[in-house]
Every structure is written in C-alpha cells, then in structure tokens.
Specification:
Helix 1 runs antiparallel to helix 4, helix 2 runs antiparallel to helix 3 and helix 3 packs across helix 4. A hairpin with a 4-residue loop joins strand 4 and strand 5. The chain is globular, with a radius of gyration of 16 Å. By secondary structure, it is an alpha+beta fold. The chain has one domain. It has a four-stranded mixed beta sheet. It has a two-stranded antiparallel sheet with strand order 2-6.
Length: 172
C-alpha cells in the first residue's frame, strides 16, 4: 500500500502513543509494542465513519480511566475524538500481560511444548481482544482484524503505563 496513493484504502499513516512509552516495560511487552507499531506501519485498514479516504494519524492515550482515540488527517486537523471506558478491556489486558510473563518464563526455561501452548493461548486472547476493540469502535470506525489486534497491543501498553507495571506484571 503506497501512503500517497489516493486509491489506497483508508488507513493509518502514523500512530502516536501520546502518554509515551514506559521505560520499565517488561521485555516481552516492549517487543510486542514494537512489533505492533511496525505491523501497523506496514499495513492496516482504519476508516473513521464519514471521514473520507484518509490517510489518518492516530494518537492513543489514557486519561481518567478512558482510552482516547484522537484521529487526525495528515495536516493534523481533527477528524474525530473517541473516548472509550477501559473497564471492558481490563480483564483481557491483565490476562494478556500474565500470558506474556508466562511466555517469557517458558522461553527462559527452554520448554518448547509450553511455549507453543502459551503462544496459541496468546493468539486466542488477541483475537478475543480484537473482537472487543472492533465492537466498541464499530459505530465510529471500521477496521480489520489485524488492525484491531495491533491496536489492542498498544492499548495494553498504554494501560500498563497508566497503572504501572507493578500492578500488571507478576513475573516470578
């Protein structure tokens, strides 16, 4: 997909984590964050309803327990500001962080069967989270499964930033 191509589908050209990235993220969470950003930059489908063809810039942030999607056009003019409660996502985020901790421990222990089982669980959890993100945004933004999966990863990082890693991660 060429970013300047007017025939390209609606997409994000840039993602900004407005609250910054915590310096003390667990390595697996940081790796997932970096991969999510790279995957989103490579390709995504993101179409705010009634906003035209894009491309769009998305600034994600968490304020007062709410997830904010500040969507702008490439000239940085506001397109939409969407606020969602983090409540429905908290359980999935907590489970996701625990799975990442378990995955890191299994890698360290070199337990291949456990690594594969945890990875399958992580994919399933990612799909569940993506469906929830898509459903919560459905009236405002159309997105594909891969974009929703990557956005969930970034939402989990922002939630960890807002609550602190000590409240999320329980690595032994």
């Amino acid at each position: 997909m060429t970013r300047s191509d007017p025939a390209a589908p609606p997409h994000l050209s840039r993602i900004i984590l407005s609250d910054g990235i915590p310096a003390d993220l667990p390595p697996m969470v940081e790796a997932d964050r970096a991969q999510a950003v790279m995957d989103l930059e490579t390709g995504n489908y993101f179409a705010p309803r009634g906003a035209g063809p894009g491309p769009f810039i998305l600034a994600l942030s968490v304020h007062d327990g709410r997830l904010l999607f500040d969507i702008r056009n490439e000239a940085m003019q506001p397109v939409a500001l969407i606020g969602l409660s983090l409540g429905p996502l908290r359980r999935i985020i907590k489970d996701y962080v625990l799975l990442l901790d378990s995955y890191a421990a299994a890698i360290q222990e070199g337990r291949e069967a456990r690594i594969q089982a945890i990875d399958m669980g992580r994919r399933g959890l990612h799909n569940e989270a993506a469906a929830l993100v898509s459903a919560r945004l459905a009236s405002k933004v159309e997105l594909d499964l891969d974009t929703a999966r990557r956005l969930f990863t970034l939402i989990a990082v922002l939630h960890q930033r807002a609550t602190g890693p000590s409240e999320q991660s329980h690595t032994p």
